[in-house]
Amino acid sequence: MIMIRARYLLNLTLILSFASLLLIADTKPVGAIEADLSSHLVAIRADFSGDRIQLYGSINTPGEVLVVMRGPDTDFKMLRKSRVAGIWMNTASMTFEDVPSFYAIASTGPLDEITSSATRALNNIGFNNIGLDLPIIKAAGSLAKDWKDSLIRNLMRSGNYQLESAEVIFLGEHLFKTEFELPSSVPTGTYFVSVYHLRNGQIIDARTTPLSVSKIGLEAEIFDYAHQHGAMYGIIAIFIALISGWIGHLAFRKG
Questions:
Q1: What does the alpha-carbon distance between residue 27 and residue 171 come to, in Å, rounded to a whole number?
Q2: Domain 29-215 has CATH 2.10.10.70
Q3: Which are the contacts of 30, defined by CB distance < 8 A and separation ≥ 6?
Q4: Domain coordinates of the chain in residue numbers?
Q5: Which stretches of the chain score pLDDT less than 70?
């Protein structure tokens, strides 16, 4: 009798717990922001000259919108040339480890107006918060700043770092859109697009969606083969170069 009562109490407890979970799920508030990309794949072919990715979204309460597109982390090696005995030579190098290969921002206003410095630092938003600073053991002071500025200049020149924020445009009271331009040199890999809903400089909601940038077709097959069979790819490349040179020699000799 005691065992039956104990089992009854246990079942009743489980039912009440499950009912409580359902009640919590039913009363969970809807997200303050929703967003998605026009495409989740950027296909790089032989004739690829860049692309545009559009993002559409909505907010259900007033506020600001900030969108960050970040490419896969990688290492960048910087070289410094100096004139030695009248010849320009590489005299110094510096490697930045695990920094974004692509970085761009879109927003409804200037970053320092719609976000607080603490919010930007906590969420790695802005060029000063994405890991471009060198460890002291590598460089410090003005030397570290020079290396960092050189890296940013090179990445901006390629179009893979976009210093000027793109504009987030509201299509009504709640709907908004923006777009990012990807250059022809855009790195491959998995990107992450984070959308933030802000109020009084603080993030009240956020969404992150992935974007794949990938080579497809013959270019992708050659790229994969070169990385998986490096030695054989090198031999084939040398052989093709020799044959091309020999054919060119015969053509010019006949001419």
A1: 30
A2: no
A3: 60
A4: 29-215, 217-255
A5: 1-31, 217-255
